[in-house]
Amino acid sequence: MIDNFIDRSQTNAEKYTLREELFGTSDVIPLWVADMDLRTPEFIFEAIKKRCEHKILGYEEIPNSAYEAQIEWVRSRHGFAMKKEWLYYSHSVVASINLAIKAFSNVGDEVIVQTPVYPPFFHSVTNNDRKVLKNPLKIVDGNFTFDFDDLRSKITSKTKLLLLCSPHNPVGRVWKREELEELAQICLENNIKVLADEIHSDLIYKPNKHIPFASLSKEVENITITTYGVGKTFNLAGMAISTIAIANEKMREDFERVYESIHFAQGNTFAHIAFEEAYSNGQPYLEELMTHLGKKIEKLQKALEPFKDQISFNSPEGTYLALLNCKKMNLKDKELRSFFVKEAKLGLSAGISFGREGSGYMRLNFAVSSKLLDQVIEQLVKALNERNSVIRKDKLGSF
Ligand SMILES: Cc1ncc(COP(=O)(O)O)c(C=O)c1O
Questions:
Q1: In-domain check, residue 6
Q2: Same domain, 20 and 65
Q3: Does residue 118 line the site of ligand 1, with CB under 6 A?
Q4: Is the CB of 165 within 6 Å of ligand 1?
Q5: 99 & 69 share domain
Q6: What is the pLDDT of residues 247-301, one digit of tens each?
Q7: Separation between Cα atoms, residue 265 and residue 245, nearest integer Å
């Protein structure tokens, strides 16, 4: 069921409507925006239809039962027990990040961002007149990890907040306990709060395990703001609903001053329903989804194997995003993007858009049907073969 191809081109799907503007053509398969071309769970549509039978759509609050469903989901999946009073509704995780920056730092303060990373992380910092303190991830044994020495050397008295992407978009890492513990230790020692964006935390491939940052210890819980969302896991981004969890009471007071100033709290009737349904009944859907995504990774790996001297990627530990390492193609970032758009007719996210450290990479969203992925692979393989034959001819010509 999940594998059925659904044509989104006639809807207002952002990945389609912005194609022309972004890629200069609509003749690309869009694989950039991080939502899925896979169906949203049927039981959510059923619940929304049922609500439509009641003919009034007045003001509504997100019900306690929805928060309880999330608490139980996070407890049973990730072993982390939250309390109802920690949770705030937000229409978007990016909005929550902006609110946290306002609440837990002042104009001119530094906020740590671990690049390459989801671009709104650094935009949220600069848009609020704070300074981005870049702590780029480093590559060890072919895998991205934190650079603690770099972090320690850069922290100043102005460093107030660290934006942690866990699991990490775009590098696909699911951080290990030891990695998170060392990061937490540095933050505790330096009085730095942590915003842990855990929106991708349900999309984990075995045997990896998501460790909620706030679950590391009581001390860590006390410096953490966690953002959660159902948008990725259940393909509900269009519903615009997510939550923020803050355990520390004093931090909640500081947060509420900012939160209340923008009158955020009400939300949308259908989003409330979708949110509660997803967390109450979403387990079988998620299992089917992860099986599907696992197969897509295998397929992509197999298809790209003959081209590994040009493109390779580490199987993501989490997320439905593959960060293709194209450095061996020896192309400048503009040329690389142009190869994907003009030759392969694929609309990927350029690695460079995640920060300078993303140079030479392209991010491909593989949360699509088998039918669409087959087409993507066909176009990419054809473009790579054509490129190779031109390179071969050029080499022969130079003798
Ligand atoms: C790490 C991360 N945070 C937040 C978001 C967006 O969340 P929202 O749509 O709730 O603002 C994304 C979307 O790609 C993401 O990858």
A1: no
A2: no
A3: yes
A4: yes
A5: yes
A6: 999 999 999 999 999 887 678 999 999 999 999 999 999 999 999 999 999 999 9
A7: 14
